[in-house]
Amino acid sequence: MAFNGYNYRGWQRQPIALNVQQIVEDTLAKVLKVPVSVMGCGRTDSQVHASQFFFHSDIEKAWDYDLLFRLNKTLPDDIAVFEIIPVDDNRHARFDATQRTYDYFIHTYKDPFLSTASALYLERDLNLEKMKAAVALLPKYHDYRALCKTPAVYRTTICKVTSARLFSDASGDRIRFQITADRFLGRMIRIIMGKLLMIGRGELSVEEFESYLITKKTPDTFEMAYPQGLYLSKVTYPYLDLPPRTEFSTILQNNMDAWQVL
User: Fold this and answer.
1) Which residues, 6+ apart, have CB-to-CB distance to 126 below 8 Å?
2) Is 236 exposed, middle or buried (0-12, 13-18, 19+ CB in 10 A)?
3) Beta bridge mates, 177
4) Kindly report the CA angle at 168 between 243 and 191, in degrees rounded to 5?
5) How confident is the model at residue 254 (pLDDT cuts 50, 70, 90)?
6) pLDDT tens digits, 12-55
7) How far apart are CA 254 and CA 80, in angstroms?
8) Both ends of the chain: CA-CA distance in Å?
9) What is the Cα–Cα distance from 156 to 152, expressed in whole angstroms?
10) How far is the C-alpha of 160 from the C-alpha of 183, rounded, in Å?
11) CB 205 within 8 A of CB 199
12) Cα(45)–Cα(153) distance, rounded to whole angstroms?
């Protein structure tokens, strides 16, 4: 499935806030006419999107109609189900995932069609080369304690980052940060993106950024990037590895040939 998270307080069901899980469970219950609970492949922050997301649910009674069609007919326009995949009873959407990829999109000019799908930063002179140098450091380190707002709540702050890349269009007006790891800590990517923007502005050096990864010392302040630029874009399982549905985020992916790896 995929969802535009701008109108939601994240994936996870909460008692007093609109969230994606609640909408999915209520829609399934309405279509199947039985109470349904679902388990998502992870949590997302308020206003964060997902262009590829998985959830599992145990449905006891088989259906004899096009469930996919009925779900998409009933779900709101900002949530879409792409496919229903039968799996063994012991499969788990969250705990079986071995790798997740996130993309963060920035536009540096005001665009009413991107305002809820990408993060606006009116920054005309970001130093992309220094930002690229900082991004290249990420796979070299595994303990991200310093780039997590609440490290004490985790049993471990080890995250095995296998890939981190920075892209830009030819003009430098559109920027895309992509990172892949086996797991992520709370708000970790938005914190990293905030530091990258500081580097681009000249407010933080690449060496200072690396010192956080070396010493694991939490910075005095966190400047988290805006949530609406962040997408969970790919989730991989040992038994399931589907390519991302890039057409879902067409407005961001237009002229992808113009994106250059920095």
Assistant:
1) 108, 172, 175, 197, 200, 201
2) middle
3) 104, 166
4) 80
5) low
6) 998 888 999 999 999 999 999 999 999 999 999 999 999 999 99
7) 20
8) 30
9) 9
10) 7
11) yes
12) 17
Domains, the chain, ranges and CATH?
Answer: 2-80 (3.30.70.580), 103-230 (3.30.70.660)
Q: What is the three-class DSSP state of 26?
A: helix
> Confidence band (pLDDT; 50, 70, 90) for 182?
very high
Q: Taking the model in full, what pTM does it have?
A: 0.93
Give strand pairing partners of 47: none
pLDDT bin (cut points 50, 70, 90) of residue 255 is low
Q: Which residues pair with 107 in a beta bridge?
A: 120, 174
Residue 50 pairs in a beta bridge with 3, 232
Each residue's pLDDT tens digit, 209-226: 999 999 999 887 788 999
Gap between the Cα atoms of 5 and 10, Å rounded = 7
> Cβ(146)–Cβ(212) under 8 Å?
yes
% residues pLDDT > 70 (the chain): 94
Count Cβ atoms below 10 Å from residue 195 Cβ, excluding itself.
Answer: 24
Residue 127, both tokens: 């130093």
The answer to whether residue 202 scores a pLDDT higher than 60 is: yes
The catalytic residue positions are: 45
